[in-house]
Amino acid sequence: MPPRLRPDFGGTRSVVKARHALLTPESHEKITQPGWPGCEFVTLISPDMGAKFAMSLVEAHDGLTAPPAMAGVARFLFCLDGEIAMGGETMGPESFAFLPPDDTREIALSRGTRLVLFEWRFVPRGDIPGAVTGTLADTAGKPLRGDDRLIVQKMLPTDAAFDCEFNVMSFEPGASLAYVEVHFMEHGLLFLDGGGIYRLDEDWLPVTDGDAIWMGPHVPQWFGALGREASRYLIYKNYNRSPLSPR
Fold first, then answer.
1. For the chain, which residues score pLDDT lower than 50?
2. Which end of the chain has fewer beta carbons closer than 10 Å to its terminal beta carbon, N or C?
3. Amino acid 162: pLDDT
4. What phi and psi, each to the nearest 5 degrees, are found at residue 156?
5. Any transmembrane segments, and where (predicted)?
6. Cβ proximity of 73 and 119 under 8 Å
7. What is the pLDDT of residue 4?
8. Residue (of 169, 192, 172) closest to 181 by Cα position
9. 74-94 pLDDT, tens per residue?
């Protein structure tokens, strides 16, 4: 468990740099957003910090129907607590939904619902895929690179029409990524359980549940799980895109 710094004395584990960031709960700033009455947002990652997507924690203190995304913007929702109703389907904790750009269906949040919301300008390759919904419990997991202590659950179909991936990575205690990754894709990540050490560039950062991370293009990155319980994180990656893509 990372050390508990006293935020009232200027302490925080949050670190924001030009190419990566760690955003921790003691530094969260809750705000409101037009069209989301009774909701509080914590926007952890945004284009203002250099990212090409936005990632927010959303908490509904009252029931409401969420407004549609801006034109050309896709969404991915992952329910943490409560219920989300959409298209006649009710989604509970650890359910998810991909909504393509210009999707007009209503998204109803029950009182007390908490979710992670990703938004980005979709990069089409031919036909734009339709909406995808599911639950993590029904999503098959596979060992990553043959390591049965490190399981990846891919929530979207393996289809080049999708310009992104959303996965949940599960690490047994002591498991780690096989090597330090460096690539042109960027990530947004939220720890769901457990923790460990994340290397971002030359920083070695203790991380735990509730922490969020932004990794920009070409940032050296590696994670090792520590402690007695398994570690899980939800991770976004821009995918099926050329490095010369304008977005």
1. none
2. N
3. 96
4. -115, 150
5. none
6. yes
7. 63
8. 169
9. 999 999 999 999 988 999 999
User: What pLDDT was estimated at residue 88?
Assistant: 87
C-alpha closest to that of 179 among 215, 223, 225: 223
Q: Which of 51, 5, 46, 50 is nearest to 29 (CA)?
A: 46
pLDDT of residue 245: 82
Here the tokens at position 118 are: 């990703």
- Give the domain CATH number at 121: 2.60.120.10
73-110 core/surface letters (b: 16 or more CB in 10 A; e: else): bbbbbbbbebbbbbeeeebebbbbbbbbbebeeebebb
Same domain, 145 and 100: no
Q: How far apart are CA 86 and CA 137, in angstroms?
A: 19
Per the structure, the complete domain to which residue 125 belongs is given by 29-136
pLDDT value at residue 2: 54
pTM of the model: 0.94
Determine contact, residues 47/55, Cβ cutoff 8 Å. Answer: no
pLDDT of residue 190: 98
What's the pLDDT at 124?
Answer: 92
Report CA torsion sign: 134, 235, 230, 26: negative
End-to-end CA distance of the chain: 37
Length of the chain: 247
Unique residue bearing structure tokens 């290397």 = 199
